[in-house]
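note to self — DONT lose this again. spent like an hour looking for the file last time. sequence + predicted structure for the chain T wanted, 233 res
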Amino acid sequence: MDLRLTSALEMLASGLRGPIRAAADIGCDHGKLSLALLENDLAQQVIASDISPASLEKARALASQEGLSDRLICRTSDGFSAYSEGEVQCAVICGMGGELIASILEKGSRIAHSLECIVMQPMRGEAELREYLYTHSYRITDDRVVLDGGRYYQLIAAKAGTPLPLPYGWPVGYYQFGAEAYRKNDELLVPMLKRYLGIMNRKLASCEVEPLALMREKKCTEMILGMIEEKNR
């Protein structure tokens, strides 16, 4: 299992009060994370779901190979559509776009708001996902950066609750990067910000007219880097 999924597992473990009865692996793909949840005894049972029947067959085969078939339930499901309220106590939603994850939470809001912890790993659309969480009664409990295969990934853990206020000086309405990663001095936040700033500068250099959206991204990234520098003095 790669580092980003291992980190998702660690975030879920830290967000739970102890072993739980059942966890949901939404968009489980081949089921590696589902099996890791069982092998690490984070849940007595995992309900793994995907819109792809072929992926679910691979998850079933992996569970059989590891002798865990009796603890893994596989379902064809679009998000939480095949789950019942109270059936699971936590969920992992990894490896898809942030806007899609937000859509899954919205469509399954009754179930999502009942969960003890939701761990999400968006492949893109981090800003859209965080904005949804902040504006739909979720509290982000953890936010961390992972460098895996030369790419930075942002992992977000949340549960129902009043959102924490953004740190003093944080760009208003800016959700591309995690305030919780800033608060806990995540060691990979600065290098990720610097890489992102470089991307913005290269994009701006290739434009004949500077687009306002890119200029805002650059300015907000510079502001957060400045906040970190000031905090570490």
